[in-house]
Amino acid sequence: MHDTPMLRAIQRLGEAWLNASADPTRRLLVWRVPANASRLLAAFFETQRHDEGRDTPDYFLRLDTAFETGFAYSREVKQSLLERYLGSQDELRAQGVALGWRGPHDAHPDSAHGVVQVLDSFATHHQRHLRLLAVVIDPERCVPGDGLARWIDAALAAAPGERLRLVLLDTDEDPRWQPLLERHAHAAARIEAPVDLFAIARDTAAQSAGTGPEVLYRQLLADLMLLLERGSPQQVAARAERALGLAHRHGWQDQQAVVQMMVAGAWLKGGDHGQAINAYRQARSAAQTARSQGHAAAPELVMQSWFGEAGCWLAANNPGQATQGYLQAATAAASIPHPMFQLEGQRMAGYCLLQQGKREEARTQLLEAIRIATPLSPQDRHATTLPQALWDLLQLQDPRRCERLQDTARTYLEQTTALHGQAEDAAARLGTQPARPPLDVIQAQLHSALEQTFHRVQHERERLIQGGDEFFRRIVAVGRDFLDPGWNGLPAIQHPLDHDIPVWSEPPAMQPLPDPAPLLDPQHAPTVASAAAPNGVVAA
Prior knowledge:
This protein is mainly α. The protein has 22 helices and 5 strands. Helix 6 (147-157) links the parallel strand 3 and strand 4 (164-171). The relative contact order is 0.07.
């Protein structure tokens, strides 16, 4: 393989792994890298799964199973491991790996102890082909609470064998596993490696073949990326002069816009709003010239410059100027056309008007935002900020009622977190080798309690919605027509078992609402004067 900065970084990760995993007493290893290197770490794990590019004698098994409770997680991990093993028989046979591993069976309980037994047996069966089995525990979704940390505690208490390492991932910016490292200082270690994607990008640009202006420009752009992360605004601006001069000499108007927006970002990061606004305007001038020359990306660069300038005005506490910037951004988005950003420009204009106390104008812009979503598919609507635009309108109309709706979401989270904790406690009382039937009972009780809690909060939210005035209820009706038949405000509350409405344990709480069509027709939309007062009384 060619020697590249990316490959060298992956090799450094391999060296860091080998050094940390060599200590047989460290059965739990926490990878800690900069957030921008997380994808590089994922690439490292992937390379270790294939003979070509593999530079460690270990096998990395990445577990992305969602975590709800320790016993359900244990059951699903065992099943997933067996399915993956059976599904890779041909590949293993081609690699000369001896088959015949029995997999999990009834003697392996649904607990961290049982999972460790299964993983140990896998590592032992394949010891001729691997030094260590590194199990990367990285759930795609995890319920709130300390359930996963408790599961790791139990897995370490099960005394993983010498060929097994449990691996967790966090970042310098969010070292969430630090308490676990401290709690298990005798058996855990942190892995750090000097990798940074910005530095890799710069090294890659510097290593590019050739000496033409394009190569030099890529190198300068990589320098700017690195300075944006680590340097001062003055350093970014100074370095940008070379890139701007090069782009100007070769007529790269679109690239001049790109560089000016990087400069603007640096000034904004440094708190100099005036310099940032000036840079965004220069970026827009270059982008407009590029558009006149037919550059495909130029219209989006114009739009981005308006969003950037508007954000600067808002950060500078000048919502009036910000309003105009966001409206210009929406117009630029409409010309592309790009409905997602058009909607966001309108929504932010409404938000800025509300900061100025201009409720009528804010309502007008927010209603226009939801009308933009009318021709979009439901899937595309979910990709926009339409839910937030609807919520902004609800808050504008009846802030106290919206606060009550938010309270229900906080209460629901607290109650469901407590229910999961109670289920974990009940399972823990069964010991490290629990029988399947009592666990099934605990899980059935948990699911029943979660559904009951969900339906209670749905009924409470519906009661609050139905107590709102007609305008309030019409806005909710738009959400149900455009997004989800059960939409009832933010934050959204999903069914705890991801069931569709036809299989809910109770009928939906939703009641009839007024026809939302008048809100979607600008000729017949209600005026603020006909809407309820902003401080309407919330129903008891």
